[in-house]
Amino acid sequence: MTKRTKKVGIVGKYGTRYGTSLWKMVKKIEISQHAKYTCSFCGRTKMKRRAVGIWHCGSCRKTVAGGAWCLLSGRMEHSKLNIPEPRI
């Protein structure tokens, strides 16, 4: 099949509706939503979104809770930086 959307990409399904500023924001969200992420358990890039906030690794079959559109939201990444690692 030929490529039908040059600029808009994944948000081409909305056609001429809603305006450019909105589809630019939606494009950023939908690209991160459909991307595959690295699993923190097995290290493979197999973590996919199943539903809002539910992420599943196809390799090790672990299911974890995460952000709504991307695996780690901005607050989650920030809080992980502030948690000290346990001393052994």
UniProtKB/TrEMBL annotation:
Pfam families: Ribosomal_L37ae. It comes from the Eukaryota. The lineage of its organism: Eukaryota, Metazoa, Chordata, Craniata, Vertebrata. This is 60S ribosomal protein L37ae. Belongs to the eukaryotic ribosomal protein eL43 family. Keywords: Metal-binding, Ribonucleoprotein, Ribosomal protein, Zinc, Zinc-finger. It comes from Piliocolobus tephrosceles. One of its GO terms (biological process) is translation. InterPro entries: Ribosomal_eL37/eL43 (IPR011331), Ribosomal_eL43 (IPR002674), Ribosomal_zn-bd (IPR011332). One of its GO terms (molecular function) is large ribosomal subunit rRNA binding. Coiled coil: none annotated. GO terms for cellular component: cytosolic large ribosomal subunit.
